[in-house]
Design goal:
There is one protein chain. This protein has eight helices and twelve strands. The protein has helices at 13-23, 42-50, 61-66, 77-88, 92-99, 128-134, 217-227, 231-239; strands at 3-6, 28-31, 55-57, 104-107, 110-113, 142-145, 152-156, 162-165, 173-174, 179-182, 196-202, 207-213. A hairpin with a 2-residue loop joins strand 4 and strand 5 (110-113). The longest helix is centred in the middle third of the chain and has 12 residues, at 77-88. Bound molecules: zinc ion. The site of zinc ion has 6 residues, from loops.
């Protein structure tokens, strides 16, 4: 069974379409949240994702913010601007779809969470101590997260320590022990590789295949500018940072 794992689309339709074309036939889609925010195509992205086959979809912090359910003081001025613009450019049907989602689920023996299993909305898994603590906050062998926009594999050694590695695109790996994995970001990569990031997961073999696909970054850059959204979000796409 091939599961397409996507996260942090951030209203970038061009990147999302490239990923859907590149991934080929899949049996299901797991989307780890942040469908919107920063990018120029929120409505188109939500509609696309909503209609994907056998979808399991989480809310990310940007999605929750757009629903008006977060204290916006946690967002900086640019993020605030983007949240307000996004809200005005989403249909009632898309906001209704968000209402049906949660921030963490367990499916097919795998935990899915946007930020971390401990705090699905806000926590970033960026340091090994935080990661180690978070292994106590899910019961399954594997947990998939997004939020940092950085593809990574954290493996639990069983002796109270955690290793990390960056899985290489195009090289599938079999996950042996307990692990937390991040597929990276479809619509706003932050690992200095501007290509859209995603993964194909085969649950019955615990097989993880990280993938990257190039898309027309310049076209999205132009649409961000035309929408009057903060310029920095457009520039970041080109740098992949
Ligand atoms: Zn994000």
């Amino acid at each position: 069974m091939r599961i397409l794992v996507i996260s942090d689309i951030h209203a970038n339709l061009t990147a999302l379409v490239a990923v859907l074309a590149d991934s080929g036939e899949v049996d299901g889609v797991w989307c780890l949240g942040d469908l919107v925010g920063y990018g120029p195509d929120p409505e188109e992205c939500v509609t696309r994702v909503r209609n994907l086959p056998n979808l399991v979809c989480l809310l990310g912090n940007h999605d929750v913010a757009v629903m008006g359910k977060l204290d916006m003081e946690a967002f900086n001025r640019e993020a605030n601007l983007s949240v307000n613009w996004t809200r005005e450019n989403l249909s009632a049907a898309s906001l209704f779809f968000f209402q049906s989602l949660t921030t963490r689920v367990e499916t097919m023996g795998v935990t899915l969470s946007h930020g971390s299993p401990r705090n699905p909305i806000w926590e970033y898994l960026l340091d090994l101590n935080t990661v180690l603590t978070n292994f106590s906050f899910f019961r399954t062998k594997i947990c998939l997260v997004g939020h940092t926009h950085i593809p990574i594999l954290y493996s639990h050694n069983g002796n109270g320590s955690v290793d990390w590695s960056v899985p290489q695109p195009g090289t599938p790996l079999i996950i042996k022990g307990r692990a937390i994995l991040n597929p990276g970001s479809v619509g706003q990569p932050r690992d200095r590789d501007p290509r859209a990031a995603y993964a194909i997961f085969t649950p019955e073999e615990s097989k993880w295949e990280p993938r990257r696909v190039a898309y027309d970054v310049a076209a999205v850059h132009e649409r961000i500018k035309a929408a009057g959204l903060p310029q920095r979000h457009a520039t970041r796409l080109i740098d992949g940072w």
